[in-house]
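FAQ: What does the model actually see?

It sees only this:
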Amino acid sequence: MTSSPPPDEVPQPPAGMQGAPGLMLRIVKDYRVAFLIVGTMNTVIGFAWFALFQATVGQLYGYMVTLVCAHVASVLCAFVLYRRFVFRVRGHLFRDLARFWSVYLVSLGINAALLPLLVEFAHLEPIIAQALIVFVTTLVSFFGHRDFSFRRPRPHKGMTNEEPAQ
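And it is asked to produce this:
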């Protein structure tokens, strides 16, 4: 018979999230490290989307169209990665996606302001400029997702984690 690990060894999801920890959180036991690992994967994938779109539609329509196309592909991919491997939550799929996307809209706004500045005024190639901007937007996404995207209210005393039957 197996015994449960002591409570201090069980990874606790942040921000009132409920449900089983995601795979990465079960492995590393610290949501910040899990976020960093999945975030690194997501950053590489998002940058690859940017490079792909820059090499295709960006050649015809410019780097700002590249940014929007890469944003859509990256957010959908990131949502699946974070929801599955870090912030393992159930239910509220579309509400979580809307909240998740709103964090990335802040990042998109920052990106849309900085990218032309770096390309037009600093004369950097769009790929290089995007590589620099990634560091800023990564910090925005960490705090936004931790504190907002997948947040669940903590149950009040006497209430369970179950939603009421309809």
